[in-house]
Amino acid sequence: ADDREDGSLPSQAMAHLALEEVDEAVQDPALQYSEEEDEALGEDEEEEEGEDDDDSDPFPPLYRAIAGPMGTVGEHGENEEAVLRLLVEGADPEGRTWEGWTPLMVSGSTGQPKIMRLLLRRGVDAITTDGCGNTAMDWTRHRVKGHEGDIVLSMPLSAGHHVCLELLERASGLWSPRSHELFPEAQRLRAAELLRTGYLLRKRGWGQEERFVAALGGLFDVWVDQIMPLAIGMRCQEI
């Protein structure tokens, strides 16, 4: 009753034969690994697992370009070209690690003002904090809480750290001629437009009475020192 008219076997019989073929194949000496091969395979698997462990890096490429290879934080010097390339390729200049560190904090803690200037001109927040409430200024000073054992804090403060502190101070307030270079492109263009307007106002006094020229000169100073900072605002502010 189990035989079919077309000569085929029922599905259960086919499954049984398939299992027998698998058993025979497993028992075939030609398909067996020797003890030496088993040991070699085990060693290869351990090496692959070890390689995966060695390659694990909690920092994305942008952080690694700033901080340097693992275990050598701050020892490689500024890597501005690689950082710029990653930013152009779409790396997030404000991307955070799981501890809340930003690229700006890393550049400050390692004393790299060229990279810090590059990040600031990309519009990163200069006063944001990490998961423990530390700012980029705190990291640059090596005065942080919650990360006292971090390797970067063992670095001596250098001239680069002091330049970074000065950059952060300039970048944390309203626009001024002194901080202009640290503002994002849109705000720098806005500043150029306003500055041109101020020059035009001043130019109207040329050829006029000396008293009028002096008054317009004073107005230009007020324009640059008081009106423009309010018009442009803080870094990254909507304009």
TrEMBL record:
- Note the Gene3D superfamilies from the entry: Ankyrin repeat-containing domain
Kindly state which keywords UniProt assigns to this record, in alphabetical order.
Answer: ANK repeat
In the UniProt record, does the keyword Disulfide bond occur? Answer: no
InterPro entries reported for this sequence: Ankyrin_rpt, Ankyrin_rpt-contain_sf
Region (Disordered) location: 18-64
Specify residue ranges for compositional bias: Acidic residues.
34-57
Give the matching SUPFAM superfamilies. Answer: Ankyrin repeat
Superkingdom to which the source organism belongs: Eukaryota
Where does the signal sequence lie?
none
* ANK repeats: from-to residues: 99-131
Name of the protein this chain belongs to: Uncharacterized protein
